[in-house]
Structure formats: structure tokens, C-alpha cells
Amino acid sequence: MLRDTAARLAQGGIPDAASDARRLVAHALGVEPGAVSLWQGMASADQLATLEAAIAARLARQPVSQITGWRDFWKHRLRVTRDTLDPRPETETLVAAALELPWRSVLDLGTGTGAILISLLADRPGVTGLGVDLSDAALAVARRNAAALGVRAEFARSDWFSAVTGRFDLIVSNPPYIGAAEMPALAPDVRDWEPRMALTDEGDGLAAYRAIAAGVAAHLAPGGWLAVEIGPTQGAAVAELFAAAGLGRIAVRPDLDGRDRVVIGQSAA
């Protein structure tokens, strides 16, 4: 099953076909991907039908996480749907950077699956957090993820800060940062299947950072921190927006591949 699935995916032009095959076969058999090679028995008709449907979906370039319904992120397994951005390993750079900072309350702008907020709250018991998103469907996924993992978090519909009140020790965000001109070059797995509003601002890719920078003074506690994920070419531009908003101690952090990935700044005490 693994060999056949990998071969069919490779013939269909799917990158990393062997890895995807393992996840799809595991999905069909109802086991963990790492346990596929240990599985013994005869696949049932239902299992084979599930696998066939999964292969067809992947050949149509639907992301594996949407087919299986989950993605492992940080220390947790999160539900993923077409209404949410697929949490990616590089976003864990933002989580790691945020956990190095002192804070007791956190606001996650554009929470999506809730991946960032849930990871932060789970690693720091006793703190509070609010996740906001413009998509009601995404908020439903985030609430379900938090409940499934036993993480207490608040969620609300908001266009960035529009429905947010109060101040927070930490504000985090992984906003849409892909420029409209870059969208056609994206892999179809991303461009055609993930929510467009979570990918691009339909402009230069910096609109979300401008909105966040404009509202941060009213919602960041004295001495609080702002940390955002960026595209690998946006470090200098986002750092300038942070500085213009009055933030100090600005730093650009790389991801594990050495690409600029996170910008951090602190408000005046």
C-alpha cells in the first residue's frame, strides 16, 4: 500500500510523495504514521475506499492536513479545515520566541486554528489569552481545538483590533503577508486550497502589519511585547513599522532554515 500510494503520488507530480503516502495510508488504516510499517492484517473494503479517496484528493493538490483533518504543531495535534491556514513548522519559531518573553496575558490576532495561542497557553499555565479572527468558521475550529486539548482560551470575531478592548502583555500574530503579485507563483496546495484571506492582503503583503502597528499603542501594556511572523524578505520593512509605532528593542529572528521569520518589539515601560 505504501509503495503503490507513493508511486501514484510521484507520478502525479506530488513533492515528497513517500512522506505523504505514509500519512495517507495511516489515515486510511486509522493508525499513527509511524506505526504504518508495523501494521498487520488485510485492509478492509472501507479502508481501501478511504485510501482511494485520499489519493484522489491529494492528486487534486488538497493538502494532506485537510485530507486527514489534523496537523501536529508544537506539542499538540490540531484540527485543520479549509477554513483555516495550515499551521506550519516555521510558525513554531514565533511560539518559541514568545515563550522567551515575560507575560501573563496574550492577544493572538488572526488566530485561525488557534495554533499559536493554544501552544502559548498550554506551555504557561495560569496566564490568560484571547484569540480573534474575522472568520467565524476559523473561530469554530479554534474553539474546538482549545476544548479538545483542555486549554482555557477566549475567542472573538474581530477585524484586527476592532472588537478588542483592554491591554495585553503580549500581542502575537501570523497575518496574511503574501503580496498579491506573489499569489500566482504559490504551490497549488496553498493557493487553491487554503483561505485566501489568511494568505494575502491583496496588496503588497504589509497591510496587516500597518494595521497592527497602528493599533498596538492602545492595546499593549507598558513594557509589553509585540511578536509577529513575517515573510523572509519583510524583516526590515516590518521593523521600520514597529519603530514608527514607538516600539523599542526591535529584533528580527530567523527560523531553523536561517530565513528571517519573526519580528519582536517592546513598548515603553
Automatic annotation (TrEMBL):
S-adenosyl-L-methionine binds at residues 110-114, 133, 160, 174. The lineage of its organism: Bacteria, Pseudomonadati, Pseudomonadota, Alphaproteobacteria, Rhodobacterales. CDD domains: AdoMet_MTases. The keyword Hydrolase does not apply. Residues 94-178 form the Methyltransferase small domain. Keywords: Methyltransferase, S-adenosyl-L-methionine, Transferase. It comes from the Bacteria. This is Release factor glutamine methyltransferase. Substrate binds at residues 174-177. Methylates the class 1 translation termination release factors RF1/PrfA and RF2/PrfB on the glutamine residue of the universally conserved GGQ motif. GO terms for molecular function: nucleic acid binding; peptide chain release factor N(5)-glutamine methyltransferase activity. Residues 2-69 form the Release factor glutamine methyltransferase N-terminal domain. InterPro entries: DNA_methylase_N6_adenine_CS, HemK-like, N5-glutamine_MTase, PrmC_N, RF_methyltr_PrmC, SAM-dependent_MTases_sf, Small_mtfrase_dom. It is an enzyme of class 2 (transferase). Its EC number is 2.1.1.297. Belongs to the protein N5-glutamine methyltransferase family. PrmC subfamily. HAMAP family: RF_methyltr_PrmC (MF_02126). GO terms for biological process: methylation. It catalyses: L-glutaminyl-[peptide chain release factor] + S-adenosyl-L-methionine = N(5)-methyl-L-glutaminyl-[peptide chain release factor] + S-adenosyl-L-homocysteine + H(+). It holds the Pfam family PrmC_N.
